[in-house]
TrEMBL record:
Protein known as: Bifunctional protein FolD
Domain Tetrahydrofolate dehydrogenase/cyclohydrolase NAD(P)-binding span(s) in chain numbering: 139-280
Annotated Gene Ontology cellular component terms: cytosol
Keywords attached to this entry: Amino-acid biosynthesis, Histidine biosynthesis, Hydrolase, Methionine biosynthesis, Multifunctional enzyme, NADP, One-carbon metabolism, Oxidoreductase, Purine biosynthesis
SUPFAM superfamilies assigned to the protein according to its UniProt record, in alphabetical order: Aminoacid dehydrogenase-like, N-terminal domain, NAD(P)-binding Rossmann-fold domains
Keyword Oxidoreductase in annotation: yes
Binding locations of NADP(+): G165, R166, G167
NCBIfam families: PRK14193.1
Organism: Raineyella fluvialis
Similarity annotation: Belongs to the tetrahydrofolate dehydrogenase/cyclohydrolase family.
A GO MF label: methenyltetrahydrofolate cyclohydrolase activity
Catalytic activity: (6R)-5,10-methenyltetrahydrofolate + H2O = (6R)-10-formyltetrahydrofolate + H(+); (6R)-5,10-methylene-5,6,7,8-tetrahydrofolate + NADP(+) = (6R)-5,10-methenyltetrahydrofolate + NADPH
Function field: Catalyzes the oxidation of 5,10-methylenetetrahydrofolate to 5,10-methenyltetrahydrofolate and then the hydrolysis of 5,10-methenyltetrahydrofolate to 10-formyltetrahydrofolate.
Recorded name of the encoding gene: folD
Biological process annotations from GO: L-histidine biosynthetic process; methionine biosynthetic process; purine nucleotide biosynthetic process; tetrahydrofolate interconversion
Length: 283
């Protein structure tokens, strides 16, 4: 068996086309959605991701507000910029690019964001709303995973899903999303303390690699015909590498690879969150 690719580029392009039309409809009502980004430091990967987000905004007609701060930014200075975006009416939603430099704290920064402007869906209030099943912006990567699976006709109802990685941007919120009544999957959340990872991955219809451990999951660890979603993104000398070893392509039925899969869906879902918030404001 050679797996087929679940293509994030094709799906993201379709999502952006739809959003472009919705942004044009908002313009007729005098509303322009505006995405803010706060980037602290010099990490080349983070700079590339933020550049990509602003390129996407330009493509669909969303205004961009960009705040770039030096590596040695103090917590007080960062708090000022976040407070400014909370108050700025031109900014309908914004993100703080993660991870922040070590002297700042990701969770502290997320808590400073006005939950109504939280374009990433990562504010504790919005994660809490996800737990409660109340409407809220959804975290972009988990939302992108569910969207890509649906577009590729992967059944979720009753599916056994093994998520490898318990991070707060992907693994944990994805477990919450997939176990909602609308998705109705059964989730096993594995992590570095899991005793026998292969025992869990082999049982699953869908395996999500979100551990950031290159090549962790090999072909012998999955069942024939399984659907795989790679969220791992580790930069190596060989380029960008995901959590799945190339041997999985001979065993799986469908794969969302790194690169070309979920990263692009993450970007598209950020735009969707910003447009949805603007639509709410226009009602
Ligand atoms: N505030 C946030 N910070 C971070 C998030 C997030 O969702 N919100 N996620 C990641 C980084 N990220 C978005 O910010 C992101 C990662 C990867 C991609 C992407 O397009 N990947 C491409 C490959 C790009 C490359 O070659 O480098 C792909 O997978 O094809 C987009 C966004 C951590 N921080």
């Amino acid at each position: 068996m050679t797996a087929t690719k679940m293509d994030g580029k094709i799906a993201a392009a379709a999502i952006k086309e739809d959003l472009k039309a919705r942004v044009a409809a908002l313009a007729e009502k005098g509303v322009t959605p505006g995405l803010g980004t706060v980037l602290v430091g010099d990490d080349p990967g983070s700079h590339a991701y933020v550049r990509g987000k602003h390129r996407d905004c330009a493509e669909v007609g969303i205004a961009s507000l960009r705040v770039d701060l030096p590596e040695d930014t103090s917590q007080e200075r960062l708090a000022e910029e976040i407070a400014r975006l909370n108050e700025d009416p031109a900014c309908t939603g914004y993100i703080v690019q993660l991870p922040l430099p070590a002297h700042l704290h990701d969770n502290w920064a997320l808590e400073q964001i006005d939950p109504d402007k939280d374009a990433d869906g990562l504010h504790p209030t919005n994660l809490g709303r996800l737990v409660l099943g109340v409407e809220a912006p959804l975290p972009c990567t988990p939302r992108g995973i569910v969207d890509l699976l649906r577009r590729n006709d992967v059944p979720l109802k009753g599916a056994e899903v093994c998520i490898v990685g318990r991070g707060t941007t992907v693994g944990r919120p994805l477990g919450l999303l997939l176990t909602r009544r609308t998705e109705n999957a059964t989730v096993t959340l594995c992590h570095t303390g899991t005793r026998d990872l292969a025992e869990h991955t082999r049982r699953a219809d869908i395996v999500v690699g979100a551990a950031g451990s290159p090549g962790l999951i090999t072909g012998d660890m999955i069942r024939p015909g399984a659907v795989l979603v790679d969220v791992g993104m580790t930069r190596t000398e060989a380029g960008l590498v995901g959590d799945f070893d190339p041997s999985v392509w001979e065993v799986a039925s469908k794969v969302a690879p790194t690169p070309g899969g979920i990263g692009l869906m993450t970007r598209a879902m950020l735009l969707a969150n910003v447009v949805e918030r603007a639509e709410k404001l226009a009602r």
